[in-house]
Amino acid sequence: MSIQSSPLVRKLGAYVALSDPELAILETFHAKRLSISDKKDMVYEGQSDPSAYILAKGWACSYKLLRSGSRQIVDFQIPGDFIGLRSVLFRTSDHSIEPIRKVEASEVKIKDLLGAFETSPRLATAVLWSASTDEAIVVERLVSLGRRDAAERVAHLLLELGARLKLVGLATGNSYECPLSQYLLADALGLSAIHINRVLRQLREEGLLTFRDGTVTFDNLDKLVEFAGFDKAYLDYEGPMLK
Fold this sequence. Notes:
The radius of gyration is 18 Å and the shape is globular. The chain is built from 9 helices and 11 strands. The strands form 3 sheets. The protein has a 4-stranded antiparallel beta sheet. The chain has a 4-stranded antiparallel beta sheet with strand order 8-9-11-10. It is α+β, with helices and mostly antiparallel strands. Helix 4 (110-119) crosses helix 5 and helix 6 (150-167) crosses helix 9 (221-228).
């Protein structure tokens, strides 16, 4: 895959119209490409001097473990996302990140990242925008956990994932492939897997969405958006601000 059509460039290109020199810098980020098993954390809580990664294929999730062993998934990562960016800037990771299935990702060291930012302030701005969007996503998840009911939480998350995947060219029309189990959705949304199952059945029976055999399909997108109160303005995907 050429760098111009990579998920990372598609994502950053939503904020900055990338020049050939900036694309060349991004291409250097892909020098160390790794395949990582879903049995191994990419970043673990408390890790010092962690690497950042650019996810190329597959999905991952960031999470915190409580002393009881309970897990709270903070967010899901999809191709084009920087993984562990906050961890490398903090020097010590405050959360863990694991692949949902086997993934392909490019490892980026902090010195290379900071060197690229020094060379290209526009690229640094694009990555800052990406990180700010990730923060906005976490804020929306907090609102879901605190104020949306179970069906609204599920609908909102699946709509959000669809918008994110569409940006990087991995969603077509009103459907996308989704590797998330009901247990993963439960850990992200503060519900039980049984409750997730009931909600998905409810949304299907109401003609809003279908999640079957690893594919999410929006059966009535407009009605689903209204039902979930989904306003994608927080994703800020309206086109480059820096040209």
